[in-house]
Amino acid sequence: MVTRREFARKPKMFDLVQLAVTYGRTRALAPTTLAIAAGEVVLLLGPSGSGKSTLLRSLAGLTPATGALRFQGAPVTDWRGVRERLGYVIQDGGLFPHITARGNVTLMARELGWTDTAIDARATELAALVGLDAAQLDRFPAALSGGQRQRVAIMRALMLDPAVLLLDEPLSALDPITRARLAGELRDLIARLGKTVIMVSHSLGEARFFGGTAVLMRDGRIVQRGSIADFAAHPAEPFVTEFLEAETAL
Amino acid sequence: MRWLLLLLFAVMTCPAQAETVGSKKFTEGVILGEVAREALTRAGVPATHRRELGGSRILWDALKAGAIDVYPDYTGTLRFEILSGQRLASDAQLPRALAAQGLAMSRPIGFSNGYALAMRGDLAKRYGIRTIGDLVRHPDLGIGLSNEFVDRKDGWPALSRAYGLTGLAIRGIDHDLAYRALAAGQIAVTDVYTTDAEIAAMQLVVLADDRGFFPRYDAVFVYRADLPAQAVAALNAVAGTIDEARMRDLNRSVAMDGLSETAAARRALGSGAAGDRDDDGPARRLWDRTLEHLWLVAVALAAAIAVALPLGIVAARRPRLGTLVLSATGVLQTIPSLALFVMLIPLLGIGAAPTIAALFLYSLLPIVRNVHAGLTGISPALIDSADALGLSRAARLRRIELPLALPTIMAGVRTAAVIAVGLATLGAIIGAGGYGQPILTGIRLNNTALILEGAIPAAVMALGIEAAFTWIQRRTTPRGLRLAAN
Q: Cβ–Cβ of B384/A86 closer than 8 Å?
């Protein structure tokens, strides 16, 4: 556990000041101030509609937000530049169905003009990392299983060696066995890469499994930030206890 | 839009060296057009004939636009239809009214093709009926008049007043059926046009209009005032040579005996070959028409894709502008096709250019709509994924959105192509050629074989294009999408 002072000294990956998102008349994210340190693993928790996905999306500039956002210490002015340093994975992978797995993985590198040799080397390295073979990479997404698709999505997110991985419920579309296996691999991967990870999760169990910092949200605002143990010992408000009990009741 | 039309115009119109004769899409008009072409050619003025260009308004607009130089019309039509706003009191005022528009007309060709009452010859002889006024003495005769003639204020109501024809039993009847009813003896008298071929064929007697009730529809050549004097002299030389009986006979020889209009015109002018039209074989004709038809469709479709693709992309990107674009192209679609063809004449003349322009405008909607639908139908998660990767908007469009929308876009192009093949047949009315030409002539001559000569290839082409585009659509659908669809 880092102390407040130690945290303040660490370099920040994200710095949010009064960041807010409004869709029409509904406030999806109340003005939120939050700092995420480099190398930190953050799990965004909360019931559906609590704003956890909105918060994640606003970190990738996928939803227009007001307030201030700094990435690696600098205010964000050019999203495309920032996005090249982010890896983003969503529930069902978001793979482009018209290009092969390899095409999906290498798309951005080709856009950026990488050499074929560099692209091949990186793809081979990543395939080994997530446990896919070359033949599987040459298939179209529709010809892959759900677990394989998520592995490809993770490869795609890692292709440019980003500083941050943003994961939006990456395991929730999978069957229980695949989910359990991939969760383990993902945890090892995160530990090995040492990257900043921000993951939206729908379950407390997942949060316990991945460890790190939990951020509990409700109605578009952050209720409490800390470890799950903290939540149980010092709930910031009755909702925290309610949330923990509801999850353990099932 | 305008620059595109002008570009098409520039591409399509080749400088006209010969004088161009136009004619309306009915037999007498085509024969007189051939008479004019033949007369000009014999006088050493090179001339071509664009036959069967729809109705008076199209010919008039084409003449004013300079797309044709001369066409046959009737003084009554000029006075009561085309220049009706000027309320000319008599035919004598026509030359001045035409001059004001930069036009002129020849001396009368020699016959009037107006309304008249006609009667079976045998009955006329038996009852001694010669004039319209004589009818009052025989109230028992069956009179069947076309519905239009009965209804028109200047038709039967005015005629019966002028001749004091009271107490006659009048039946309304479809004009096309009137001749059959006459032949069957169901009626004895009907209204006709004075040069109808049937008058000669059925030996009807045209009742004299001794009170001058019916206005004259003297046939004349209307031409542009800048027509060379030599050409004007050639047209005037025809004047007075064809009377009503002669014209009826010529109409009959074409409509009923299958003589070509060219042969009829030569007969009218006295034989002496000039400017022989070589009659191509049917295979050659079909081939030429196929090329003409394909050309109309291909050029229009290519232009439509070039314009509709960016338009659809903009519409998909900007919802408010998109609504506007979609409704604007939708409105274009509601303009009746004939009206659109005619509206384009002052701008583009006659022939392929206005036809291609019209087909282009009609092709926009299906393509724009499908580009829009294809792009807006892409899952938002994929757009997010593309953005999150850091793709620029151009790269996102090129690499992700257009490939995903391609099957939908191709379906739109296919719809547009099939519609264009059908609509292009209407282009014949404004001289674009293609499969519409035999259909038009077939309708005029009541010749089903000729109609099919155009209709069947048009249907085959539509089916072929449908099949070709279905194949292309399948080929261009990315393999991954085909997999995903299964």
A: no
Domain housing B315: 282-485
Mutate to test the interface with B, among A58, A98, A155 (most CBs of B within 10 A): A98
**What are the tens digits of pLDDT across the range B5-50?**
555 554 444 444 689 999 988 889 999 999 999 999 998 899 999 9
Q: What's the structural domain count of chain B? A: 3
Tell whether B484 is within 8 A of chain A (Cβ): yes
Across the interface, whether the CB atoms of B390 and A98 are under 8 A apart is answered no
- Residues 6 or more apart whose Cβ sits within 8 Å of residue B343: B335
Nearest CB to B391; choose among A90, A97, A108:
A108
* Chosen from B379, B385, B387, B397 to mutate, greatest number of chain A CBs within 10 A: B385
Per-position pLDDT tens, chain A of length 250: 556 666 666 778 898 888 899 988 888 898 988 999 988 999 999 988 899 999 999 999 899 888 889 898 888 888 888 898 999 998 888 999 999 999 999 999 999 999 999 999 999 999 999 999 989 999 999 999 999 999 999 999 999 999 999 999 988 888 888 888 999 999 999 988 889 999 998 788 888 898 889 999 999 999 999 988 888 899 999 999 888 888 766 5
Size of interface A-B (CB pairs under 8 A): 77
> Shortest Cα distance from A23 to chain B (angstroms)?
16
Name which of B308, B296, B299, B298 is nearest B332 in CA terms: B308
Domain boundary among B176, B206, B236: B206
Could you tell me the two tokens for B76? 């009554």
Question: B381 — contact with chain A (CB < 8 Å)?
Answer: yes
pLDDT computed for residue B16 by the predictor: 44
Under 8 Å between Cβ of B172 and B152: no
- Do B107 and B170 lie in one domain? The reply is no
Nearest Cα residue in chain A from B399: A107
Is residue B307 one of the residues assigned to a domain? yes
The token duo for B126 is 């038996």
Smallest CA–CA distance from A93 into chain B, residue: B385
CB contact under 8 A, A142 and B403: no
In sequence order, the 6+-apart residues with CB closer than 8 A to the CB of A28 are: A21, A22, A51, A54, A63, A220
**How far is it, in rounded angstroms, from Cα A90 to Cα B383?**
12
Rounded CA separation B234/B228 (Å): 10
Q: Is residue B274 part of a domain?
A: no
- Predicted ipTM of the assembly: 0.90
Q: Does B405 lie at the interface with A, CB-CB under 8 angstroms? A: no
Whether residue B479 sits in one domain with residue B394: yes
User: Does residue B148 sit in the same domain as residue B231?
Assistant: no
Q: Which residues of B touch A100 (CB under 8 A)?
A: 480
Give the residue from B222, B196, B247 showing the smallest Cα distance to B73: B222
Of B389, B392, B484, nearest to A107 by CB-CB distance is B389
pLDDT of the residue at B311: 94
> Is some CB atom of chain A closer than 8 A to the CB atom of B390?
yes
Q: Which two tokens stand for residue A234?
A: 């010092």
Q: How far is A163 from chain B (nearest CA, A)?
A: 13
Distance between CA atoms of residues B239 and B237, nearest Å: 5
- Kindly list the residues from chain A whose CB atom is less than 8 angstroms away from the CB atom of residue B478: 97-99
Q: Domain of B225: which CATH number?
A: 3.40.190.10
Q: For residue A18, what are the CA distances in angstroms to A32, A70, A130, A221? A: 5, 12, 37, 11
> Which residues 6+ apart lie within 8 Å of A218 measured at CB?
A46, A47, A50, A239, A243
Residue of A nearest to B483 (CA): A142
